[in-house]
Give the backbone structure.
Amino acid sequence: MLNQLGLVDALWAFRDGRVSPGDYLAASHDAALARSDLAAFTVLSADPAPGDGAWAGIPVGVKDIIATAYMPTTNGSPVYADHVPAADAWIVARLKTLGASVLGKTVSTEFAWRHPGPTHNPWKRGHTPGGSSSGSAAAVAAGIVPLALGTQTFGSVIRPAAYCGVVGLKPSYGAIPRVGVHPLAPSLDHVGLFTRSVTDAAFALAHLIGQDEEDLHGRSLPSFSVDLDMGLAPRESPRLALLRTTIWDRAEPEQRALLESTTAAFRAAGAHVSDLVLPAAFEGLWECARTILAVEASACFGALVERFPGRTSQPLKDLVAEGAQIPAITYVEALRRQADLRADLNAVLAGTDAVLTLPASGPAPEGLVWTGDPAFCVPWTCLGVPAVALPAGESQGLPLGIQLVGTYRNDLALLRTARWCETVLARPITFPVFGPAS
């Protein structure tokens, strides 16, 4: 099926004349309509047409906290039910310049926090796809779009990618400008990507990194390119640091077993794998991240929850109240520790190409009222370092993944390591048939 071609494969097909951009875009639109029971989108483009550029014909799912001109952007909240921005977010404008088309807006939890939307996991109805980038992960996994945008403040790209069995990329902090993206906690917010392969993720990132003076935290990555014909070159015999983390006991047995078996496979294929124990100072990262999140979210949403008490959720109100009680000196100290530990991580990981660890506690939980535990992603988001989720196994009909983590602004090196791991795993790209609830 045309819509199941990945990003790079589709561009190949366009160039070679095997597939027309218009036909590919139409096939994706048809797939979105056919899978409306997945509830991945809040709105679809009525009649998408190829743009003007190298990516003409590529459909993209855009998370519903990312502004799209003349298309509703509700931020997952009834407060914004009728909100139609006048201007595109920076990342959307960049995609349109490349020629890509916004196929539709994908479901987000309320303001990218805890209150979930209606999206199902495409592998098993009645299970969460993860959050907050719920619809984006589901749309890529279901074969509707080859690329979707997400955001991550705690675990909102890596965890849904693992739950849905796709590649999730959270680039280094500041790599993609957040202008036009509704903030949750500006010192933690990242724009990320969902794709079907590491090469697709790297190819997309190479075209989407940048800077904008309106994003005060932005810092563009060193530029790089991924050849359309050759793809992304894997890093040979990578040096991996296996981190079981101090919250290892929160992971389910099948998730822990997958990490161990995957580690053995990487060793057998030539990777140099050593055990990693982070210095004690890094144990404070969970508390540090929570402090930053609560204070900044309270500043972002305090007035809103006061004005609209009936249209904002209890989890958002609780977060605002929590942040309002945190002393300023505690917040400032958390920001200082965040910066110091980001710098310290380079020394800790010297001689290492990537950390190999868990992306989530296990397969996607049953039910749509909770999007899962983000704890295995939080330290890396707080540090702002790049992270990749790779599909690596399954349990009870649901995907399981691994997480690879690099050092700040060394995104290309991490992606090359992830490409090697993907090659060793050699998992075929498959698409779910949306089945009954368990």
Notes: The chain has one domain: 2-278+346-425.
